[in-house]
Structure prediction request, 287 residues.
Amino acid sequence: MKKHLVILAGIGLIASGGVQGCSENQPTSTQSPVAESSPATTGTTDTGTLEIRANGEDFVRQGFTSKDGWKISFENVYTTLSDITAYQTEPPYDPQKDKDLRAKQQVRLDKPQTVDLAMGDEKAEPVLVGEVSAPAGRYNALSWRMVKPAEGPAKGYPLLLRGKATKDGKTVDFTLRIDQEMAFSCGDFVGDDRKGILKPGDRADLEATFHFDHLFGDADTPMTDDLNRKALGFEPLAAIAQNGKLDVDMSALKQQLSPEDFKKLEAILPSLGHVGEGHCKETLTQA
Prediction:
């Protein structure tokens, strides 16, 4: 899969141990916050620094072609993340089988943050969301919520996509405003590199990953692949554009898309969240 980019600002992090649980303005700061953890809550001096990162696929920054032949580029892909929590779980949490995760340790970002997944170029690494002094061990689970921000460029929308699509000499400038809140509870990161293994005095990272090819499909993937068979594509959106422009929220999409296409869109949204290629348990929380 391809990679993403994010910028976040001004967050705090909390570390704790012995718990159970699961679960058209740019951001102005690119500084990564650093939080303190208390020995009284971690219960150990064997600590390191755990980095939390957010990532999407490269085509959000670089542009790509949808399954139905629309060349898409993004100006902004805003999402607002809340309650991002990394866990050491035992036994390892499997979101496709387990009802709950059992955490020996956890660290959490304690403030909602709006991020722009479309910022950066093809060489950009996943941007640091925050870092915290955390008990050493293997962090093998991650959870977060996508919530409605109270302010900022995506106010009121957990997910806002703005960009341009072209095909056969036609251009559509689009803004998709998704007001559905979602929660993701994920297991171990799946990818080329191992993540979350924190040694005393060392650094490790975890990643929240977003797969927007699930929404639009990918011309570079066989059309018979599940990805493309389940994806909405861009053609249904282009069909409801007026004078080359489309600015819609979920209510407008429900009214203007066919019932079949809107149902497909609703089914896709909870599948956006991953940890690398690792799957998550998804919950729609509030319309």
DSSP finds seven helices and 18 strands in the chain. The helical segments are 39-42, 58-62, 213-216, 226-230, 235-238, 250-256, 259-268. The radius of gyration is 19 Å. Confidence is low (pLDDT under 50) at residues 1-44.
